[in-house]
Amino acid sequence: MYKIAVAGTGYVGLVAGVTFAEVGHQVACVDIDEEKVKVMKSGVSPIYEEGLEKLMQKNYAAGKLDYTTDYKTAYKDVDAIFIGVGTPEQADGSANLSYIATVARQIAETIENDCLVVVKSTVPIGTNDKVEQFIQDFLVHDVRVEVASNPEFLAQGSAVHDTLHAARIIIGAESKWAEDRLMSIYEPFKLPIVSVNRRSAEMIKYASNDFLALKISYMNDIANLCELVGADVQDVAKGMSFDERIGSKFLNAGIGFGGSCFPKDTKALENLARQNGYDLKTVKAAIDVNKGQKTLLYKKASKRLITFSGLKVAVLGLTFKPGTDDLREAASLENIPLLLEQGADIYAFDPVGAKNFEKVHPEGPNGKGTITYVSNVEQALQDANVCFVFTEWEEVKKVTPKKYKNLMRTPLVYDGRNIHDVLEMEKAGVEYHSVGRPSTSLAGKKESKNHDFQNTRY
Ligand SMILES: NC(=O)C1=CN([C@@H]2O[C@H](COP(=O)(O)OP(=O)(O)OC[C@H]3O[C@@H](n4cnc5c(N)ncnc54)[C@H](O)[C@@H]3O)[C@@H](O)[C@H]2O)C=CC1
Ligand SMILES: O=C(O)[C@H]1O[C@H](OP(=O)(O)OP(=O)(O)OC[C@H]2O[C@@H](n3ccc(=O)[nH]c3=O)[C@H](O)[C@@H]2O)[C@H](O)[C@@H](O)[C@@H]1O
Fold it and tell me: Is there an atom of ligand 2 within 6 Å of 189 CB?
């Protein structure tokens, strides 16, 4: 059993702290947000993550887990401090490391024990070296302190499961002491561990996230071409997925990737490459494709409807993906202001994201149009002129073609997550547009009269 402190109780810090306690360590979760700490002490999770609240309550009651704003007491005599604070994007795309620096300074001035500092936040390559130097420079007591990298790979919506059943734990250490301590902290998880140097560990995180982002952008690029040449990207993805080298995951085309990480981590790596005089073309392309993808359906609908003024617009899904109440870089945040700007009356359904959306846009982003938050899909669809699907929540996936047809004033659906069957929608009389698939014939299919193949050599 180790005595551990975790700095930051966001998705990464809180889940790390709770799962460390669950496997037997003694954990203090530190945050600067007093309200958050109060909420957590009362047994309530400040974020929506399946299974998290239960584990919080269980380990808090067992005395293995505590929450505090008092970092001085929390850091003073622990074996390890995990840093899980944010590294948000700055205007030039680089990562903002000021939160990390603040914690490093607090650690340097506080620790009275030999301590391993572990950077869990996603940080540019070389940051761990700087954090270690910084702590050494400001160290008040004569203790041994080293920094190790331990990037996190959990996905929001399945954070607890992903942590307890992670595909691998990455450890980036520069000494046997640091490596051994981190390995034994993770020993009770019984998971595969890959131990490398700090810079490689930092790179593994960016390379993994950006590879996944690239995979999505690649499929979106192919989807856009599919539309032009009459192929169906879902069938294409299915055909590709049987090749084990490609795999079946992250092949879903749609209105692009959002969330707190892919958008910022692609930009941060591209920025880092630029700083080093290297043109990271593949990642740049992934960013570029994603930019165009987010408002693709809005643009299509604008062409079709000319204006949204006075129209009732059903919006299904606000969060960047299902299973989370997080809105960061969600497609809804780009599309809804455009719709409101044109005077649309939006009826938005999201099982958990509405409250957060309201916080960001309390009166509607631009003062034009209106936005009403409803508690079920039926209320959103009732008498709507057009519907946009932004998030593939189960409640949304379950909407039948008949329901669209019967509830909407005009059954016109723009699906950014490709969740419905094109033919079924057509049969029910719904005009259906998705990404990289043929639209229903009600939308007017283009017949190809192209005989160029006669001149093509294969
Ligand atoms: N959200 C995710 O799914 C994943 C995030 N990451 C990375 O982990 C890092 C953290 O991300 P999130 O957990 O999403 O961040 P978050 O923004 O949800 O949480 C950060 C927390 O740190 C607190 N904080 C700020 N300064 C502090 C200080 N000096 N002492 C203590 N607490 C402080 C904030 O009040 C906040 O509660 C980022 O680098 C991110 O890229 C990595 C994998 C997954
Ligand atoms: O570093 C991070 O923060 C995390 O980023 C992602 O996790 P997350 O952002 O929670 O969500 P994902 O499930 O990866 O989805 C990200 C975005 O990609 C989109 N996506 C995903 C898969 C797909 O096939 N198509 C697609 O458009 C989703 O709709 C969503 O907007 C990674 O999956 C995690 O491994 C990583 O730890």
Answer: no
